[in-house]
Amino acid sequence: PDYIVLEYGINDIWRGTLGEATDSADAAATSTVGALRYCIETLQGSLPSSKIIVVMPCMRNGLDAKQNTYYELVKPILREYGVRCVDMLGNAGIVKSMMNTDGVHLAIPAAGGGYDNTTEAVTRYSRCMETAMLNYSILSYLGLRLSRKSSHEKT
Fold first, then answer.
1. pTM of the complete model
2. Distance CA 124, CA 92 (A)
3. pLDDT tens-digit profile of 59-77?
């Protein structure tokens, strides 16, 4: 695949053990950081031409401090591995009133009984993802063009 999109962290923030920035990649990892490192290393090792994008969670349930800690731990790790990040908390514009009462899941409209693209939260989520994918594609294209230009200049 050209892209692999991982939505990572909701259950870890809600109920898990975040770990430390130095936790190593391990198949039996018991921390979010170790599991994330393992997942990225495994994917990059087995699908080296695929670009990985991690969607950061957008929770509105009173766990702001733990969610901020998660972001502070994970963002540098993603940079370390060259993995793009979609910041749903900061960039999607999803507010608490668009969430279910648990503050974790997007609210399901009472009339529709399910998610669809007419729901404001889903629309915002989709736009945020589309923008991230488009930006990634543009940056990848520009990087490829720049590397080709650079290699032609050397010859």
1. 0.73
2. 6
3. 667 667 777 888 888 889 9
